[in-house]
Target: Polar amino acid ABC transporter amino acid-binding protein
Amino acid sequence: MYKNKMVLSVIMSLALLVSACGTKPAEQTSGNAGSGEQPAAATQASKLDAIKKAGKIIVGTSADYPPYEFHKEIDKKDQIVGFDIEIAKEIAKDLGVTLEMKDMKFEGLLPALEAGNIDFIISGMTPTPERQKSVDFTKIYYTAVQRVVVRADDKAKYTTVDSLKGQKVGAQKGATQETIVKEQMPGSEVKAIGKITDLIMEMKTKKIEALVVEQPVADAFLQKNPDLVYADIKLTTEDSGSAIAVKKGSADLVEAMNKTLDRLISDKSIDKFVTEANALVEQ
Ligand code: ARG
Model:
């Protein structure tokens, strides 16, 4: 596979070279000759083409996030399912390529994208201004609110942000929730952990007193863990939307993905995927 990529990039560089030779001198004086940087238009055209040529697109996700993406045993086989995964499949289908999935910690997704190990991220990822500096996002396809989870026994004890002063509050590492705890609960100590499943365990074993997580995900876990409940604590964050991330400078890929998202939003497929994913959580 690596070799194929090499061959492909050699062919592409040759093609670039040939086309560059054919252009008028005025167009060559862009200032980045020899810097290894390609003209934006060429880079943009090549990403989508390269994926189509390879016949495959690689998605990165952190499958600890029901109903977005999670592991489920189906037909005696461990599978990654969820509404994000259904969206990813539709994107691959519209591009006419097969979908390959890579499961990793949420915090590893952006570095993997920038390193070129994956072609896009779908992982309930919020397009924050900070992230927008390093990657490009599609439009938002789903929005959720942030909630605080506590143990049922502590519901009366923890009713305000202040009541959690000096206590440990959990959040997923590298996720917006980590920032939310730091900014909105400055009196609490944030405990950032890579996988949501481990954070739930931390709650159950009383290593943390509260957990900040998106409502659909909290719903999924609360349903299976009656010892955990929503706290009556209001956070002042805005709704957090989810979008797909791609490497910077792949405008044609973003455009193609937005087309698929438009279709899935307008024909209510995403709503259907969410309902189906929730049903899988309940099983
Ligand atoms: N929306 C939050 C963020 O973008 C959390 C996403 C976590 N996703 C996951 N698959 N664990 O940071």
Remarks:
- The radius of gyration is 22 Å.
- The chain has a mean pLDDT of 88.
- The longest strand covers residues 56-61.
